[in-house]
Amino acid sequence: MTPGSGTVAVVTGAASGIGEGIAQRLLERGASVVLGDLDASRLDATASRLESEHSGRVAHVAGDAADVDHVAALIEAAPGDVDLYVANAGVFRGFGLDVADADWSLAWDVNVMGQVRAAQALVPGWLERGTGCFVSTASAAGLLTQLGSPTYSVTKHAAVGFAEWLAATYGDRGVQVCCLCPMGVRTDMLTEGETSTDETARLAMRSVVGAGATVTPLDVADVLLEALEAGTFFALPHPEVGTMYARKAADTDRWVSGMQRFRTSLES
Predict the structure, then answer these.
(1) Distance (Å, rounded) from C-alpha 25 to C-alpha 4?
(2) Is residue 66 within 8 Å of 113, Cβ to Cβ?
(3) What confidence tens digit (pLDDT) does each residue in 158-204 have?
(4) Which of 35, 64, 212, 261 is the most buried (most CB within 10 A)?
(5) C-alpha span between 178 and 102 (Å, rounded)
(6) Inter-residue contact 138 to 110 (CB < 8 Å)
(7) Mean pLDDT across the chain, nearest whole number?
(8) What is the three-class DSSP state of 12?
(9) 8-267 architecture in CATH?
(10) What is the DSSP string of 112-130?
(11) CA triplet 52, 53, 57: central angle to 5 degrees?
(12) What is the distance of C-alpha 59 from the center of its chain?
């Protein structure tokens, strides 16, 4: 699809970071956008800024992206049928093997089930209309791995798997699916990890920064829009992730050994 004037979009996790960047780029192209985020005060501020620049095309609803009722409220707030849903909300919680069950549950609910519930709400209507687009923000961690955080690595792998399933099942029936997999992006999530008192959390962030250049949320948004226009499944703001992914598949043992060496270098 080519988002533009007349496009109706929903973006979750849109109060800051990647979600805010995607929402801004969509609005600049003439789309109407519903913003969702758990942080109500920050969402209000972001929506106010974007509304001042794109009057009449911004709505926002605060809430939990994994909650069925909130997903319904986002769709209800849209000025017409939703053409594009960007399931961008995510959490980066839980470091090391002894992660609490509550952190596992939170990561699974937000990073995976939030996307599942959105697709359940929208795909049947898209099939009837013969058109619709679902974007999953899954992270490079979903293609490779995330040192330090088993919760993030596992749930982002699951997000990629769900996006693949959606594309295989509905991609030839009018539903476009795009899986966004950035590596290091200059967001609050990155900053919080770098300044954490948890050494394993800091290692996780060092692994992201050390693997390649960090980009801006607007850079990520630009790559996503290019992928949507081209109709490609993966949107890779860091092209090297595709190379790493191919090498991992070609020789997994060698790739794992390389990750072990990388982890050791970060620990020292």
Answers:
(1) 10
(2) yes
(3) 999 999 999 999 999 999 999 999 998 888 766 665 667 778 777 77
(4) 35
(5) 29
(6) no
(7) 94
(8) strand
(9) 3-Layer(aba) Sandwich (3.40)
(10) IIHHHHHHHHHHHHHHHHT
(11) 85
(12) 20
d(CA 134, CA 159): 12
- 196-205 pLDDT tens trace: 777 877 777 7
Active-site choice (85, 152, 170, 245): 152
Give the separation between CA 62 and CA 40, rounded to whole angstroms.
5
- Contacts for 99-103 with beta carbons within 8 Å, 24 or more apart? 99/150, 99/151, 103/151
24: tokens are 């801004």
Residues 6 or more apart whose CB falls under 8 angstroms from that of 187 comprise 16, 17, 18, 217
Query: Is 85 considered catalytic here?
Result: no
Asked if 67 contacts 86 with a C-beta cutoff of 8 angstroms, the reply is no
Distance from C-alpha of 250 to C-alpha of 29, rounded to nearest angstrom: 40
Q: Which residue, among 137, 145, 142, 146, has the nearest Cα to 118 in the 3D structure?
A: 137
Count of other CB atoms within 10 angstroms of residue 249: 10
